[in-house]
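Researcher: Quick one. two chains, 998 residues in total.
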Amino acid sequence: MLSVIIFLPVVAAALLLPLGRTQQRARFIALAAVIMELLLTLIVFVGYDTEAGGYQFIERFDWISAFNIQYLLAVDGLSVPLVLLNGILGLAAVLVSWSVKERPNQYYMWLLVLQAAVMGVFVSMDMILFFVFWELELVPMFFLISIWGTGRREYSAMKFLIFTFLGSAFMLVAMITLYFSLPDGERTFDIMALMGRDMSGLLVPTGLVFTGFLIAFAVKLPMFPLHTWLPDAHTDAPTAVSVMLAGVLLKMGGYGLLRINTGLFPEQMTDFAPTLAVIAVVSVLYGAFIVMRQTDLKRMVAYSSVSHMGFVTLGIASVAGSGGTLSSVGLNGAAMQLFTHGTITGLLFVAVGLVYERAHTRYIPDLGGLAKQMPLIALGFMIAGLASLGLPMTSGFVAELLIFLGTFQVFGLATALAAFGVVLAAGYILWTAQRTLFGPRLARWDGLTDARPVDVAAMLVLIIPIFVVGLYPKVLTDVFAVGINPIMAGFGLSGFGG
Amino acid sequence: MNIGAHDLFLISPELTLVALAVAVIFLDLVIGRKGIVIAVAVVGLLVPAIAGVNVWSEIHGTGADTAFNGALVVDEFALYFKFLILAVVVLLFVSSADYASRFHPFQAEFYALLLFSSAGLMLLPAAADLITVYISLELASLPVIALAAYEKMRLKSIEAGLKYLVLSAVSSAVLLYGFAFLYGATGTLRLISSDPADPAIAHMLINGDPSIPFGGVAMIVGVVLSIAGFGFKLSMVPFHMWTPDVYEGAPIPVAAYLAIASKAAAFAVLLRLFYTGLDSASADWSVLFAVLASITMTVGNVVAITQTNVKRLLGYSAIAQAGYMLVGVAAYAGSGTNPELGAESVLFYLGGYAAMNLTAFFVIMAITNRTKDDSISGLAGMGQRAPILAVLLTLALLGLTGIPPTVGFAGKLFLFNAAINADMAWLVVVSVVNSVLSAYYYLSVVRVMYLREPDNPVRITLPLYAWAALAVTSCAVLVLGLWPGGLLEVARQAALNLVY
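Model:
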């Protein structure tokens, strides 16, 4: 099942090259593929048995037996919502790039390969396989940004590639060191088998291995001060790629932190958590303050991602708190934030992309009063914006509430400071909305059309999960809790609700 | 000394190769159409391949067999390289038939010289004493001097030939001098020996002074001079200066031959000399190679960034790649578990490197043969002019960068595994940072192909046989990347012959 989920987009991508010579055919093939993909991920999400918990849909084959490397796929409560998220965003990405004209078959091909690679990251339970997919994602991103991007696209594509590649290089070293540190005969890259193992007595200090993983995930998340690639990549990427980048690629970093840093190295995580909390607060506030100064809509959303990903880091850091069930609340919140930020920021980028497609500018001072000409797009932007600042009934509220609940008892001051980030978010979101959407109607934008049905569909795909999760968060929290509990066990704590 | 039929049988691949070279020259005298002569050379390569399979089936199971009173040892390690070199030569012949028409009417001699040289290369991995090493090396090098200067109407080609001649001569002299010191210090030239009356270097080393590296000052000089001599063939820094010049000037098939076949054979001797011959001094040389590896890859990658000529770029890339492979040489966990991991990873990487680099060279050969422009900017718009070639070159360059799912990733993974197994985590960090550096210039080439507009919209076409060669190499890049287990197992069996 999971193999099908990974390779369905690859097969569709391979079909696109010979079959999708016209734009019309290319986009319908791509659309069919992502719809099927979304259905498959829904099947996995619904089919995941939260009662039984643990790892499900396991597929295990020997790959390189000399080093005990396996083709090992599985999902647990942590990854299953992210798999669904990737399915949702894949559909949104194809819908939002409905009018791509330049080399459409290659464009959709890379988009599908990107989705497949990210899917592989979320379902691989063998570290080397995880790493393969992690690196594989660079190739489509490089081409998508540098061929279909705007502005300084070549610079941004290369910067993205170099940052991620450098970060993941340290991850590879950490993985191999971990492997050879285990006694002969027990050496494995199997994450499921490594969970709960005592990680003391490695070849090198365990802290170094932990740091190797941390660097890779911190670049991807991104954490201050390793975030500088993100605004460039976001700004110059085509809309669909910004959606995927904010929606799922950043989530790979958070997922890695939860799965590997927190899951495999509880002791080092406990030691490092205070530092992580400081980094988180800096990311939140720095990101939020920088947003204020942006004049480019996309750059603005990009920095808001830095700020919001700071909440994820903060939630993860809260795991250091000992005693009580509250500490797992923070982790649940972090995981929730991964999902909700994916849909919310995805929606923000869709709205911004639609504005840019029509107005051909993202320069905020030039815009204004757009709600008059394009009410539907403005509505989408407002829903995303309000969810982003944590309005109750939207999913953003749930995630941030959980994070603050979990963190407050552990890092009181940090939480208070980070909560100020929410205030700032309210400020910059509403201020931006006021400057671009509202205000007097500008005559120069009168010729612009509102969202077409396909654009509305792209926004709806993302709006639905925002409200579903906002109104009934249990649909996700129950699943995440199943995935978080085994991680909490490593900290000697009882899990959420248990 | 008696030479028996069995000795001849063991070197039958090389003998038939030389015979083929002679046959090609004579056929050229009587047959006017060069295409037929080239076809004979290609098909004729089946004979040494079959001979090789014969030898393999003979020694398979028994492990190793010696010939000519122990001067040659034919084991799976040697055969791994013989088959690798044969495969490279076949693919080079097939793909360069088109390119070679510029040598008219001297195509046949070109192929014959390549055959002579590869006979030398095939003997190298089997050499069991230093004299054989030296003779094989000369047999391999001398034809290359003529080959590098083969485009005799082009000044750069003459320059390449002359440079190779002078530097090759100097490095041979240095190597021979080093061997003399090794002989002086140990009283033997044997790398491998089962005869107590004629012991191997490894055996004599054990009696050295443990407080001095390698057991004696004469040994230090001998080892350092030998490394310098081999360093030339490996394009190891600081003996790498010739590489970009010769790659730029020499005909492209010759550059590919030097970058792949010649380098593979040099690594074979290096592994034989150090893993088997000097294994008791591994603590001394493994650090040395680790440092040389880091310097080599760093210099190669950093200088490659500023290149504007695609052949020079491949030259510096070849230097950097040699640096990665030296990591495997350095990663000899002499006293630890799995000491063969280092050699095994080098063998695997050489196989993958051959596939990736051949793909890159074939594409460059096909394109520059049409455009007559070997600058990187000459590749502009190849995504439109030659879509399939551009995809294949992208694949090869991603492989050389080490991005999965290509064989380049698998190869680096194994090299790094070996280095960590030998407690050299720092060397792996240096290597991965270098991989990131290399991503910049490899992908810059990709960028030029897809993002720059072509100055000439004419599509680039290739003859069918050149496509066939490209199909083989590019499939190998992917297949060995997705399923590396098989080749890795073969490499392991071969590497186990080095360590006891």
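DSSP finds 21 helices and two strands in chain B.
Researcher: Thanks, that's what I needed.
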